[in-house]
Amino acid sequence: MKYLEEFREAPLVRKLAEAIRKATTRPWTIMEICGGQTHAIMRFGLDQLLPPEITLVHGPGCPVCVTPIDKVDKAVALAERPEVILCSFGDMLRVPGSSGDLLQAKARGGDVRMVYSPLDAVVLAKKHPEREVVFFAIGFETTAPANAMAAYQAKKQGLTNFTLLVSQVLVPPAMDTLLSAPDNRVQGFLAAGHVCTITGFEAYHELSRKHRCPMIITGFEPVDILQGLFTCVRQLERGEAKVENAYARAVSEAGNTAARAMLGEVFTVIDREWRGIGWIPQSGYGLAPAYRDFDAEKRFTLEVEAGEPQSECISGLILQGIRKPHECPAFGTRCTPESPLGATMVSEEGACAAYHKYRQYA
Fold first, then answer.
1. Which helix (H) or strand (E) holds 233?
2. What is the per-residue pLDDT for 61?
């Protein structure tokens, strides 16, 4: 595949790695915000090509990983109602709540269905008017337009048996929270290219100025990531702090205007809880007043007891870039992809899953 392989060419990768080594004179800590970038870094060993002065830490860029236990518990409670068909993407099915996950709810008789698009759930609602169809709408700005379209289409078709259990989160407020923390050690960011494909990067300029932090929009292939790192290191070494777009083939400053219009139609910005981090002001989407009839939390009475995460799991510290997966005492022994203690080991984009898949630690 020409347009993929050209961003994995070994000579260009080596050239960029050498450019980063030459540009680096001091220690720098850089966070990649996206779980897809984390997996690429681990898969291709990009961190091992960097000079020892560069430390990469992994941010809360996995939508599955930051979905709070409360929302997982509500999804499980809905799935166990006989009148409900609970639809979800596959990577949410094994995320542990306080008393099990969606696959366990399915094993107990719940009607849990894996779908590939939220519009599949809309089709199910139309096909089964006698059932209540709930789609578990999670994710960052990347998945939000499709989830918004599902509500838009359900309203347009007059469906009264379709709702969303919404846990949509927004990246810039989380970056602001991490950079504002007293124990923050992040000096530069690789921003998620697919998020910026939707939203653009206008909001990042203020963040960069506020925290004096370079923010580089980049993609997910080795050349993309190393180009982003080189751009970030060059800024840090020069004492600069601005937003640069190293993913111009997919991202423009204004983003996708049609997708943004759909988001403005269906959603409104609200405070959201992030698993492992806590409540972040104005960091998520909730359904706008015109779409409140499609809110599962308002349609159903969902009373779940607040659950505590596994005390041994340090996924919250990992999501904040404070610790790395292999520093967890349970990593690879009591916590594995087959028996995960935390969401960061479940998801294909989770940092713990990446370390477990691509690295061996004694």
1. helix 222-238
2. 85
Is the residue at 17 inside a domain? yes
The CATH number given to whatever domain includes residue 133 is 3.40.50.11740
Segment 116-141, tens digit of pLDDT:
999 999 999 999 999 999 999 999 99
Tokens of 70: 């409360």
- Sequence letter at residue 8: R
Q: pLDDT tens, 10-61?
A: 999 999 999 999 999 999 999 999 999 999 999 999 999 999 999 999 999 8
> For 288, how many CA atoms within 13 A lie in the half-sphere containing its CB?
12
Query: Cα(185)–Cα(28) distance, rounded to whole angstroms?
Result: 9
Instruction: Please indicate, yes or no, if residue 362 is contained in any of the structural domains.
Output: no
Residue at 81: amino acid letter: R
Domain presence at residue 361: no
Cα torsion 93, 98, 104, 105: sign: negative
Q: What is the pTM of this model?
A: 0.92
**Cβ burial 278-303 (10 Å sphere, 16+ → b, else e):** eebeebbbbbbeebebbbbbebbebe
Number of structural domains in the chain: 1
Q: How far apart are CA 334 and CA 123, in angstroms?
A: 40
DSSP per position, 335-355: B-SSS-SSHHHHSTT-HHHHH
Q: Give CA–CA dist 27/25, Å, rounded.
A: 7
Range of the domain at 185: 1-356
Give the integer Cα–Cα distance in Å for 331 and 337: 10
Question: Cβ contacts of residue 277 below 8 Å, gap of 6+?
Answer: 60, 66, 174, 177, 316, 319, 320
End-to-end CA distance of the chain: 37
- Alpha-carbon gap, residue 189 to 218, rounded angstroms: 10
Answer whether residue 86 is part of any domain: yes
Measured distance CA(59)–CA(41) in Å, rounded: 13
Nearest CA to 178 among 164, 162, 189?
189
Residues of the chain with pLDDT under 70: 1-4, 306-311, 361-362
